[in-house]
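Weekly sync, protein design subgroup
Attendees: M.S., D.O., the rotation student, P.L. (late)

Item 1: inverse folding check
M.S. brought a backbone from last month's batch and wanted to see whether the design step gives back something sensible before we order anything. D.O. pointed out we never logged the input encoding, so this time it goes straight into the notes. Structure tokens as presented (301 positions):
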């Protein structure tokens, strides 16, 4: 049965929980940088995340068959190694709120990459949204005030969003060729491949020694149990029980709550220009999401 136009109270609670979990994860990811290098933490997060996801996959009793290797590996490199690894690297020197906002520019890169590689025609409204987002990015980054360290963090966060967007393009190609593919199985197998790749990277790249403080175990537990295994399960539940237009609100709310959490818990108060930039980016995200949703509705009529 279609969930179009219907609301499920329990699913709405799940959506709120999902948004808060993913939003606070930026705080946990930032705080752990005091004790562990970016690649070590990303590797450990992927290892524990993969273990938990495979447990969930096993409990669902839908089989453990690997998803198509080539596509899954590329998604692992882009979505997990690229998006999470680069974002964690950016957090080593950048604020949690700013990194979250810059990483969540992903939908704009999806629109651009889809036009380049999937032949999807960009609409006038999308051009406008990208223009608004570009102004917002400029205000958030404020390149005229950046030192080399801040510039590096901002660029890494933007690259994280680009990598995430590129993974969406690859995933769309995969879904076109394998329409019945199970999302949880794909997530589990790509997480396993990412764990292997990031483990090699962590071994090869010199980093600070790990200081095994309680904060490291807390961040790993939060990232693997809540932000990975539980959050992905919630996401599947939300997608199944709510209209996509409502479910997509989480992608708009996460960076906003990330900024608010970083302000509240880390004292990262955004300046007036940065606040204006955040508002512009969120508005542009809303425009892109609304346009995408309108197109989907038209195609189903």
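Designed sequence read out in the meeting:
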């Amino acid at each position: 049965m279609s969930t179009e136009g219907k609301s499920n109270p329990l699913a709405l609670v799940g959506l709120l929980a999902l948004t808060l979990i993913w939003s606070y994860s930026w705080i946990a990811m930032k705080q752990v940088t005091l004790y562990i290098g970016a690649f070590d933490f990303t590797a450990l997060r992927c290892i524990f995340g993969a273990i938990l996801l495979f447990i969930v996959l096993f409990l669902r009793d839908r089989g453990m068959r690997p998803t198509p290797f080539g596509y899954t590996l590329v998604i692992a490199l882009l979505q997990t190694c690229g998006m999470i690894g680069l974002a964690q690297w950016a957090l080593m020197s950048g604020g949690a709120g700013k990194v979250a906002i810059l990483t969540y520019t992903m939908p704009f890169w999806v629109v651009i990459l889809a036009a380049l590689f999937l032949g999807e025609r960009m609409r006038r409204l999308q051009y406008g949204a990208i223009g608004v987002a570009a102004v917002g990015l400029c205000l958030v980054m404020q390149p005229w005030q950046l030192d080399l360290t801040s510039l590096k963090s901002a660029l890494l966060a933007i690259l994280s969003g680009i990598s995430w967007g590129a993974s969406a393009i690859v995933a769309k190609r995969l879904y076109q060729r394998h329409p019945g593919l199970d999302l949880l199985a794909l997530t589990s197998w790509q997480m396993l491949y990412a764990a292997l790749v990031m483990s090699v990277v962590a071994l090869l790249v010199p980093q600070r020694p790990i200081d095994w403080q309680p904060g490291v175990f807390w961040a790993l537990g939060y990232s693997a149990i809540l932000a990975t295994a539980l959050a992905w399960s919630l996401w599947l539940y939300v997608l199944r029980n709510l209209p996509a237009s409502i479910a997509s609100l989480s992608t708009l709310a996460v960076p906003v709550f990330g900024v608010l959490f970083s302000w509240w818990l880390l004292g990262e108060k955004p300046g007036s220009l940065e606040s204006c930039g955040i508002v512009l980016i969120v508005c542009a995200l809303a425009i892109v999401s609304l346009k995408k949703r309108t197109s989907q509705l038209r195609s189903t009529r």
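Discussion: The chain is about 80% helix and 0% strand. The first helix runs from residue 9 to 31.
Action: P.L. to compare against the previous round before Friday.
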